Amino acid sequence: MKKFILYSILFAVSANMAKAQGFRIELKTPQLPVDSLFISKYNYGKKNFKPVYAVKYSERAVFTDGKFLQPALYLIYADTNVLAEFLISDIDNQRFTIEIGNNSVVYYGNEENNANLQYQQKIKEFDQQATLLNLAYQKMSAMEKQVKMDSIILEHQAITRQKQAYQTQIAEKYKGSLLASIILSVMEVPPAPLEYLKDKTLYYRYLAEFCFYKYDFSDNRILATPLADNKFRQFSEIIAELDAEEAIPYVIDALRKSQVSFQQYSDLFDYLEHNFGDIKSPYRKEALYIAMLRYALADAYTDEYRKTRYRHELSLINKNHAGDKLPDFNLIMQNGDTTNLYNIKAERLLVFLQNPSCPTCKKVREKLKEMKNALSKQQITVLTVYFEEDKSLWQKYLQNDAFPDWLHGWNYDLTIEGENRIDIRSIPTLYLLDKNKIILKKDIDIHELELIIDN
After folding, report:
1. What pLDDT digit, counting tens, does each position of 428-441 carry?
2. Which structural domain range is residue 180 located in?
3. Is the pTM of this model over 0.70?
4. How far apart are CA 214 and CA 197, in angstroms?
5. How many domains does the chain have?
């Protein structure tokens, strides 16, 4: 009995020692004209693959370390050429061999990566079927397309269903692995009803509703692959096709689903904020961004650091809308006179809030100079406003860079910034006002200004 207990203890110790040995990956290749081999891990923050291990090239090279590899997608490079990829799901199965032939890759001792290879080949076959169907459709005459459109769509949907059935089968077989999460994250939405394909708004609503239907927000390993970023981008592209009010329920639903992982929730919020909340984004949807901020502020899942920032954003974004009067502020003008915004007489006034040394401000100033005649024709007067405390910087700007056809002022008492009178989330910020200082357009950019002038 004592011997049995001793053997059991020795077996457990041996097993733990084996697990404590870390990873070992042997790479067998034909002779290659390269100097080094690298293992690179996907870096989610930088959106690229970063080398984490390197060895001198040989036909039987070994990567090894007493530490385990973190769960992620990895690539093996020969100098700058990718030889193979492999998945690491956990601390098990981190000792295997990859054999690369002229037209083949085989993983010995790691079933998940062989399955991934077979999976990719099968998906390629499904995609080829869909491509051939699309090519056949493109070659049809206009009349044939009209007659056969519904049958082509049904055939395409049949291929999609077969593909999804196969993906579901493999994901279930390897449940709990990184491979399963990857498969689920890339699964296409179920085929939409035929009538949805003939109505753009219905179609994009459908895509928005089902974009994350198989995506596993609880598996943070997916962040160590490019697929999370791809999925967030796909969702953003869909949302960009909808009006802000239409998009709100789908965005809030996606944020709610993501709240099984603080990291994924935060990353998804940040991604959507950059696209639809950033003042300089061409896809900005102010109503959607306001709804996102209110949701985050009302939710216990958002940490206090983020809530502080979101409160500030909301306090700014709720100001200075079209139809409001822009709040008055004091100015010293280029000629030394003291005045205020409301005393400046102009049929239309383009208030250009800037920092003279800001590179983007300089570019916008140059573009506005090129529009001199068009602005004059539309009776638009340009007023540059410096609102920070460095008086010498403003004076230097007046001497060297100030365009003589414009008005230039400095908010010398710093009330614009000190009292948060105006929504300035980035510089430059431009407001187009009418003669009564009512806002015609908030956060106007050069392209919008050109369209207003043209129209």
Report:
1. 999 999 999 999 98
2. 111-188
3. yes
4. 22
5. 4
